[in-house]
C-alpha cells in the first residue's frame, strides 16, 4: 500500500478541464495521459471506504499490476487519482506529500529490466513532464537500492513524481509507482 497525503491529487489536471464521474475512467485517463501506458488493461474498481478504492492497471494481460489509488476528493463526487504503487518499484524518497525543489532527491528499491527506472516530475497539468531522468536499482528479479536526482522547472503548487519501468520487448511503460508532492522554492 501507498501512504497518501490528505487532499493531494496527482490526476486530473488542476485546471478542471477534465473530470471523471467513474473511478475506472479516472484510473484509465491517469494511466494513459500522465504515466504513458499504451492501451492498458484496466481492471474493475475495488471499493475501499465509501469515497475511495483502487483499480489495477497492466501494460498487457500478463503484465505486472500497477495499483491506481482513486478517491472522491472534492464535494462534486468526481474521481481523482491520489497515487499508484507496484510491487517492483518501491520509492521511499520523497515521501508522499513532501515539499520538493529542483533538483529533487529520489530513492527507494526496485527490480527492473537492466535495472533502469525512469523518473518523471509532473505538475498538475496535462502535457510533457517538468523534468525527467533515470535511476538504477536491481535487475533480474533481484531488488536493489536506487538513488539520484532529477532537475525540473516547477509549474503550479503541486504535482507528482512518476517512477516507471519499460518493457524489454517493445519499450512501452510496463509498471509505475507515483508519489504526490508539493513544489517549494529551491
Walk me through what this model shows.
The chain has 186 residues and is mostly beta strands. The protein has 1 helix and 12 strands. It has one helix spanning 23-35, and strands at residues 41-47, 52-58, 66-71, 80-86, 89-93, 99-100, 104-110, 116-123, 131-136, 144-150, 158-166, 173-183. Strands 6-12-11-8-9 form a 5-stranded mixed β-sheet, with no helix packed on it. A 4-stranded antiparallel β-sheet has the order 1-2-3-4, with helices on one face. The protein has a 3-stranded antiparallel β-sheet with strand order 5-7-10, with no helix packed on it. The longest helix is centred in the N-terminal third of the chain and has 13 residues, at 23-35. The chain is globular and about 45 Å long. It starts with 22 loop residues before the first helix and ends with a strand.
Give me the number of helical elements. 1
> Can you list the strand order of the major beta sheet?
6-12-11-8-9
Uncertain runs with pLDDT below 50, 5 residues or more? none
Secondary-structure element series: HEEEEEEEEEEEE
Task: Give a summary of the structure in a few sentences.
The protein is mainly beta and 186 residues long.
Question: Can you lay out the helices and strands and say which pair or pack?
Answer:
Elements: H1 23-35, E1 41-47, E2 52-58, E3 66-71, E4 80-86, E5 89-93, E6 99-100, E7 104-110, E8 116-123, E9 131-136, E10 144-150, E11 158-166, E12 173-183
Parallel strand pairs: 6-12
Antiparallel strand pairs: 1-2, 2-3, 3-4, 5-7, 7-10, 8-9, 8-11, 11-12
Amino acid at each position: 500500500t501507498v501512504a497518501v497525503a490528505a487532499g493531494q491529487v496527482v490526476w486530473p489536471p488542476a485546471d478542471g478541464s477534465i473530470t471523471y464521474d467513474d473511478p475506472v475512467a479516472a484510473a484509465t485517463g491517469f494511466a494513459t495521459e500522465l504515466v504513458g501506458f499504451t492501451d492498458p488493461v484496466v481492471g474493475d474498481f475495488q471499493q475501499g471506504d465509501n469515497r475511495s478504492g483502487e483499480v489495477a492497471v497492466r501494460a498487457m494481460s500478463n503484465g505486472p499490476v500497477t495499483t491506481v489509488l482513486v478517491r472522491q476528493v472534492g464535494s462534486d463526487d468526481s474521481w481523482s487519482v491520489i497515487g499508484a504503487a507496484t510491487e517492483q518499484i518501491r520509492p521511499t524518497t520523497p515521501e508522499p506529500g513532501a515539499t520538493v525543489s529542483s533538483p529533487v532527491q529520489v530513492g527507494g528499491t526496485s527490480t527492473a529490466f537492466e535495472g533502469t527506472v525512469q523518473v518523471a516530475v509532473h505538475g498538475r497539468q496535462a502535457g510533457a513532464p517538468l523534468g525527467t531522468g533515470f535511476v538504477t536499482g536491481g535487475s533480474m528479479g533481484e531488488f536493489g537500492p536506487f538513488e539520484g536526482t532529477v532537475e525540473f522547472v516547477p509549474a503550479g503548487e503541486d504535482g507528482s513524481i512518476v517512477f516507471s519501468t519499460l518493457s524489454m520487448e517493445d519499450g512501452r511503460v510496463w509498471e509505475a509507482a507515483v508519489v504526490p508532492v508539493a513544489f517549494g522554492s529551491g
